[in-house]
Here is the input.
Amino acid sequence: MLSDYAPLVIYAVIVVGVVGLLITLSNLLGPQKPYKSKLLPYESGIVPVDPARKRYSVRFYLTAMLFIIFDVEAVFFYPWAVVLRQLRWYGVIEMLVFIGILLVALVHIWRKGGLEWE
Amino acid sequence: MSSITLAAPDPLGLYTNPIGHWVIVVVAMVVALVVLMTGAAYSVWFERVALGRMQRRPGPNRVGPFGLLQLAADGVKLAFKESFAPRMVDPVLYVLAPAIMVTAAFLAWAVIPVGIWYGFSYWIADLNVGILLVLAVSSMNAYALLLGGWSSNNKYSLLGGLRAAAQLVSYELSLGLALVPVFMIVGSLRLQDIATYQVHWFGASFPLPLILVAPLSFVIYMVSAVAEVNRTPFDLPEAEQELIGGYLTEYSGLKFVCFYLGEYINMITVAALATLLFLAGWEGPLLPPVFWMFVKIVFFIFLFIWLRTTLPRLRYDMLMRLGWKVLLPLAIANVVVTAIVLVAVQ
Here is the structure.
């Protein structure tokens, strides 16, 4: 039922209000005395050499792609799990086919070295 | 007026009065928030005391009896600290990141039921997809860490944020799959149903802790949960020694508090989930349900602290190997075996 979500919405509004209050208070309470060296990024006491937002090699890029694929597949397990007791062997065999495809993909990635940290 | 119901007895007939009903709902939610924040504060206190004792030092013991008021003192101090943003930060994202963190942490508790007294349990929203909501909002904290790390314009923060993302793609899959056997056994995603799952043997009904029938799920869940809340041995995003706190480096004052609050509430959340999913929730003999719920959650929090004092931090290729090459195949095998056994014995 959609009305089940009504308390969730009210609660979300209250939470956002409380968090907004916390963030606002953080700027109102306490002194505000900025000066130049205080506003520098912290780099263990050394004057920072470069801006931090440079191009950075994200090495887990491939893993992240694999993650999205597998995570979307994992979502299909949830509705299946809930009704498994009604589906019985039909459900089990259907899912074994699905898991089989998933496993073949995983083994393939594994053997191709897609899970290695290079 | 509305179909909102709290699972509470209603001796004064307030629910039938529309205004009284709304007042009760809002007050109960605010009370829940206050309890959560206090719980997070005392988890910090408990962690500091336990860490201290395990390292043969007293831990906080100056403010109040047993240092119990230490966190109140720290909170006041942090509230009145200067909360400044360094130059070159992204002003919107820099503020948004701690807000996302603590908002997501609070929202997870919208569907987590707490047994209060015999036949009286409390929850905010009774959703048939409860656990999905918890999983959805609890993976939001990776966004908070990534945005916080990127917007700070600090190399340590950036590395911390990226590590948070790398960590998410390593354990989240096995976390999700580890829970599937529980749903198969109970046949519901509603946390209340899972926590109060009963078996009927010899004509009697018993609450069944699901750890007994799905022990492997429990182990995979616990490992993944420690990674989810970024605690040792998986505290790569905030590694104090290498990254000076990682994404936290440039935060101060109440924004820093927001991150910490979110982190400790998340810790209580995964402890509560472990309790509800695997330890029969608030079921227990003799003493009232709220006591059992509390004891089980504290037990898991103690476990997290114990791990922190015992284990060294993993390197992050090791974390990925653990997630993809050990936990994921194990979790899939667990799903297959549980499904076959479940249908065979039915």
Remarks:
- Chain A touches chain B through 68 residues (CB under 8 Å).
- The CA atoms of residues 80 and 87 of chain A lie 9 Å apart.
- Helices of chain A lie at 6-28, 61-75, 77-112.
